[in-house]
């Protein structure tokens, strides 16, 4: 499958009468977007705001981050199963708005979390301090149940992202990248001497606020399967995961999956990047056994020589991570895992909830328990009401001088387990 | 799969009490783990992962575990203690101990949210167990 | 605890009901016991029978201490 | 600004006094003198810091008189009140490395003065002290002196100025078993791909998170002569003297108990009970021999099967006790048993 990604560099976002993209500037009229959100009668109201790199702005609580994209050639449309039909995506041409993101924010549960600081020490830890952010804060109708609200905000995010993406249709991209995966036989014939490499991505699938969807399907119900990495770029995998800001994978990071990009960079040179294998992280132990058996079997059937294995979350997924690693290694497939750590505030505790000697090649996104002091910023988009309740915060989080003492856990994508950032630990 | 639910989440007990066997634990999340471990040492088998959910053990006070009672008599049970359950529950207790204890949330709305999420993650396991 | 005793230079036999735990905690010489509430006894037996049973277990434990092992070993019947 | 004051410790060889034949010289304090590698340090410090005294001690003397020489040197350093204490570098010299680690750790711990040393990773002093004091990794011989001084000087200045010490791989010290965050040059996914390429090519690679030690202790040799051996009983089943005088908790125990078995031939419900809260206590309370087989061992003692049953036994509660506590109990009990001349242990658990 061959996908062209045309990149349109966005250099500024401004509110304006007419929504359009012109000379790299995204002009947005919130009134154009409001109806897209409010078509779901579970949402009472929505407001939009803009946060730019370097501004004294804090966005919290963040739910999801999405990159607006539009499919201009080839089958299907972006976010299949949500905004578009379930046609197989991943081929043809897609335009992406680079340098910007749509951030959905607002309280879903009382311990909701996720902080994006656009300046100060916290900014270094989140990739979304470097993007121009269009922030969307939704307010639910009275008495809406938590899971209905989560679903409503999640889906509204995709609709708005698609609507903004549509503005790019017809615009000449600043840069175009081509990604191509080959059929099994084709790839073997074309690169007979290159090691066959796969990417196994574990998707968060534990339940309410901990879900991931593939073509609209709740991934806890899937049996591990193979997809083309280019499908992921078109939004085939989306996040419904709200908890654990630092190591959840927002939709944006699925769309821009760094492992996929970096494997593609070696594709045809040092490796033959065969495919992506997706699996889940269910809470039921027998499901874990089944899924890890399946991934290991797929790696074997595809005759892979090596894989990269990434996870999402803490605790429960550590067990999936280790099961997958152990079983895949046992098939003779060399495995490198990407994870993050909960080594305690002092860094002295055991980092993972599970371990095995087979996991001898580990890349870490850092210790999520490390404490950071965030200064008071001039403006808050969303609300600080819940900051004391979020993961990694404590009752002394909101200090008298207005600064926040928190663990890195609260910062969106700080210790991302797909290797999106440069943070690490030793 | 025949199972019983070990929980300190009153919402779970209320909602599932009529249809399922509940063993209610008065106490915190760690107490549920320790109780589960004792049962596992006597032959019960863990069906869901004790560290489910990304809400950390020092935030949510609630935990609901799904256990399968393998044997009726203690003697038989001892012969068939499930090593994987032993390992997982042991790890869970030590993970619990490493997170800094926080002042317990008393805000009823937040407690209710924690209960709802806990129940949802429990149901997520039950769905797999019931099929 | 068993590991630290062994580290102090003492051969240790772990008489333990749940042998998987014993293996996990790193005991080297392991003798399976009877049941959790009464690892070295059985209240269903009369006093003499019970003591004979216990003697058998203790002798097995001593036997384990007299046996050279390399790595972990469970002394089954 | 005033220069930071540094005290430097070296051995007889680096002081230019002599080799092995001079290894027995006692500690000497050279106030105001800069000797051997100290010159290079001083140059490296520029006008930011200076060595105000050098302490020289023979390696054999140090290791044979550890307590005395430690006290003597600590006394000097206390009076000198430097901002930093540097020992070595010791490279791969074993006794020198141990001396450097010992004295640097003591200065840091007992005087609360910043201290550091440098040595080769395989120097026995490294394993002994890397979690107690900053040890800068050096080459294995004095040929690496220039590089060692350079990295030690850089670290020393950073440390003196109170700047945040980064992760071990950034600042060149040996990992202290504490996880420290830092920003890598490449993002995680790129590092993962690079690591995989190495792994595929069977080239060496370094994991960023070594899996925890699946620490196993080698089994001790078997008991050769059981008929003359002293056997001790230890239990995690919580068997205590009736009334639980030591207040062993029923779970999450924070202490263990030591009880006498002198004159005890059979445990009964009037004298012993269980403190364990994790199982039905009825059976153990009725007859604690079911957990702690004193009756049988007394018989075997009489019959000469074993030499003797140790006069004390130790008890704790396995239920919910933290790993660190259990480890601490084990170490302490082990120490006491060895001191009492015990040959082997029967540990019972429920």
**Which stretches of chain A of 5+ consecutive residues score pLDDT under 50?**
none
**Computed CA radius of gyration of chain B, to the nearest angstrom:** 14 Å
Unreliably modeled segments of chain B = none
Report the portion of residues of chain A in β strands.
25-35%
Protein structure class of chain B = alpha+beta
Number of strands of chain A: 26
Strand order of the largest sheet of chain A: 17-19-14-20-21-22
Mean pLDDT of chain A: 93
Largest interface: C-D, 49 and 57 residues
* Average pLDDT reading of chain B: 85
Number of strands of chain B: 4
Helix percentage of chain B? 40-55%
- Strands side by side in the biggest sheet of chain B: 2-1-4-3
- Characterize the quaternary organization of these chains: heterotetramer
Shape of chain B: globular
Major sheet details of chain B: 4 strands, mixed
Q: What does the largest sheet of chain A look like? A: 6 strands, mixed
Shape of chain A: globular
**How much is the radius of gyration of chain A in Å?**
21 Å
What report would you give on this structure?
The complex is a heterotetramer of chains A (426), B (131), C (77) and D (350). Chain A has one domain. Chain A is built from 8 helices and 26 strands. Chain A has helices at 30-38, 146-166, 184-190, 229-233, 251-255, 258-266, 285-301, 316-330, and strands at 2-9, 12-15, 20-22, 25-28, 43-51, 57-60, 62-66, 69-73, 92-98, 100-105, 116-117, 132-140, 175-180, 196-204, 210-214, 217-218, 225-227, 237-241, 272-281, 306-310, 334-341, 362-367, 371-374, 379-382, 404-407, 423-425. In chain A, the strands form 7 sheets. A 6-stranded mixed beta sheet of chain A has the order 17-19-14-20-21-22, sandwiched between helices. In chain A, strands 8-9-1-13 form a 4-stranded mixed beta sheet. In chain A, helix 1 packs across helix 2 and helix 7 packs parallel to helix 8. The model of chain A has no long low-confidence stretch (mean pLDDT 93). Chain B starts with a strand and ends with a helix. Chain B is 50% helix and 12% strand. Chain D is an alpha/beta fold and 350 residues long. Chain D folds into 2 domains: 4-171, 3-Layer(aba) Sandwich (Rossmann fold); 226-348, no CATH class. Chain D has a 6-stranded mixed beta sheet with strand order 2-3-1-4-5-6, with helices on both faces. In chain D, strands 8, 10, 12, 13 and 14 form a 5-stranded mixed beta sheet that branches. The chains are: A alpha/beta (426), B alpha+beta (131), C alpha/beta (77), D alpha/beta (350). Chains C and D meet through helix 1, strand 1 and helix 3 of C and strand 8, helix 9, helix 10, helix 11 and strand 14 of D.
């Amino acid at each position: 499958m061959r996908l062209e990604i045309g990149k349109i560099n966005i250099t500024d976002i401004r509110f304006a009468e007419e929504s359009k993209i012109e000379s790299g500037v995204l002009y947005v009229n919130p009134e154009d977007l409001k109806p897209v959100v409010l078509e779901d009668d579970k949402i009472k109201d929505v407001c939009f705001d803009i946060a730019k790199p370097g501004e004294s702005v804090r966005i919290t609580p963040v739910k999801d981050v999405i990159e607006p994209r539009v499919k201009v050639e080839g089958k299907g449309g972006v976010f299949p199963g949500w905004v578009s039909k379930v046609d197989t995506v991943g081929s043809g041409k897609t335009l992406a708005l680079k340098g910007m993101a749509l951030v959905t924010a607002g309280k879903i549960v009382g311990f909701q979390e996720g902080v994006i600081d656009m300046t100060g020490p916290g900014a270094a830890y989140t990739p979304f301090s470097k993007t121009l952010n269009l922030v969307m804060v939704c307010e639910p109708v009275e008495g809406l149940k938590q899971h209905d609200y989560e679903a409503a905000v999640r889906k509204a995010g995709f609709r708005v992202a698609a609507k903004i993406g549509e503005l790019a249709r017809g615009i000449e991209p600043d840069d175009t990248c081509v990604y191509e995966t080959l059929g099994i036989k084709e790839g073997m014939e074309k690169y007979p001497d290159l090691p066959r490499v796969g990417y196994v991505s574990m998707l968060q699938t534990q339940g309410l606020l901990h879900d991931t969807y593939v073509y609209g399907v709740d991934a806890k119900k899937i049996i591990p399967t193979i997809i083309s990495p280019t499908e992921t770029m078109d939004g085939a995998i989306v996040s419904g995961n709200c908890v654990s800001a630092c190591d959840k994978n927002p939709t944006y990071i699925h769309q821009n999956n760094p492992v996929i990009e970096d494997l593609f960079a070696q594709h045809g040179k040092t490796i033959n990047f065969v495919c992506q294998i997706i699996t889940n992280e269910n809470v039921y132990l027998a499901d874990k056994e089944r899924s890890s058996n399946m991934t290991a079997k797929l790696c074997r059937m595809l005759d892979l020589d090596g894989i990269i294995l990434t996870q999402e979350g803490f605790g429960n997924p550590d067990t999936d991570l280790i099961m997958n690693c152990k079983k895949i290694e046992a098939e003779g497939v060399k495995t490198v895992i990407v994870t993050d750590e909960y080594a305690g505030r002092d860094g002295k505790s055991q980092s993972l909830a599970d371990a095995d000697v087979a996991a001898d090649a580990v890349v870490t996104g850092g210790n999520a328990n490390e404490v950071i002091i965030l200064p008071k910023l001039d403006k808050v988009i969303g609300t600080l009401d819940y900051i004391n309740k979020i993961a990694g915060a404590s009752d002394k989080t909101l200090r008298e001088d207005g600064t926040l003492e928190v663990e890195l856990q609260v910062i969106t994508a700080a210790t991302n387990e797909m290797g999106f950032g440069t943070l690490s630990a030793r | 799969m025949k199972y019983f639910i070990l929980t300190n989440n009153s919402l779970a007990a209320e909602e599932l009490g009529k249809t399922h066997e509940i063993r209610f634990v008065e106490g915190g999340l760690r107490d549920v783990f320790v109780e589960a471990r004792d049962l596992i040492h006597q032959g019960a088998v863990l069906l869901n992962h004790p560290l489910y959910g990304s809400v950390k053990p020092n935030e949510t006070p609630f935990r609901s575990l799904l256990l399968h009672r393998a044997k009726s008599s203690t003697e038989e049970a001892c012969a068939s203690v499930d090593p994987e359950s032993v390992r997982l529950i042991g790890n869970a207790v030590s993970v619990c101990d490493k997170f800094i204890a926080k002042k317990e949330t008393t805000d009823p709305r937040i407690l209710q949210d924690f209960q709802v999420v806990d129940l949802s993650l429990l149901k997520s396991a039950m769905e797999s167990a019931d099929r | 605890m068993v590991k630290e005793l062994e580290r102090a230079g003492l051969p240790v036999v772990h008489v333990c009901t749940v042998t998987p735990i014993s293996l996990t905690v790193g005991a080297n010489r392991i003798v399976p016991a009877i049941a959790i509430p009464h690892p070295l006894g059985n209240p269903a037996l009369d006093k003499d029978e019970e003591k004979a049973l216990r003697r058998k277990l203790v002798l097995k434990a001593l036997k384990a201490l007299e046996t050279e092992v390399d790595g972990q070993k469970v002394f089954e019947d | 600004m005033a220069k930071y004051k540094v005290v430097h410790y070296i051995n007889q060889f680096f002081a230019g006094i002599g080799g092995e034949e001079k290894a027995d010289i006692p500690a000497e304090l050279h106030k105001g003198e800069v000797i051997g590698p100290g010159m290079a340090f001083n140059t490296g410090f520029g006008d930011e810091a200076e060595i105000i005294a050098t302490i020289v001690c023979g390696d054999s003397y140090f290791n044979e008189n550890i307590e005395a020489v430690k006290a003597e040197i600590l006394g000097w350093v206390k009076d000198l009140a430097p901002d930093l204490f540097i020992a070595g570098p010791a490279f791969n010299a074993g006794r020198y490395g141990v001396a450097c680690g010992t004295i640097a750790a003591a200065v840091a711990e007992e005087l609360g003065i910043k201290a550091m040393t440098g040595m080769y990773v395989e120097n026995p002093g490294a394993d002994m002290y890397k979690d107690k004091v900053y040890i800068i990794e050096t080459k294995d011989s004095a040929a690496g002196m220039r590089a060692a001084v350079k990295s030690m000087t850089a670290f020393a200045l950073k440390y003196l100025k109170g700047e945040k010490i980064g992760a071990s791989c950034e600042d060149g010290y040996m990992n202290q078993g504490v996880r420290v965050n830092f920003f890598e040059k490449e993002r995680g996914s790129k590092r993962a791909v690079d690591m995989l390429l190495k792994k595929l090519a069977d080239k060496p690679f370094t994991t960023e998170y070594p899996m925890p030690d699946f620490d196993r202790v080698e089994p001790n040799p078997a008991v050769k002569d059981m008929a003359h051996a002293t056997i001790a009983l230890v239990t995690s089943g919580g068997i205590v003297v009736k009334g639980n005088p030591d207040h062993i908790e029923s779970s999450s125990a924070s202490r263990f108990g030591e009880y006498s078995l002198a004159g005890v031939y059979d445990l009964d419900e009037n004298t012993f009970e269980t403190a364990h809260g994790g199982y039905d206590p009825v059976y153990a309370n009725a007859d604690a021999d079911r957990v702690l087989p004193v009756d049988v061992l007394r018989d075997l003692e009489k019959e000469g099967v074993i030499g003797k049953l140790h006069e004390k036994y130790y008890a704790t509660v396995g239920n919910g006790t933290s790993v660190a506590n259990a480890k601490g109990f084990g170490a302490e009990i082990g120490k006491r048993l060895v001191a009492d001349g015990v040959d082997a242990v029967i540990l019972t658990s429920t």
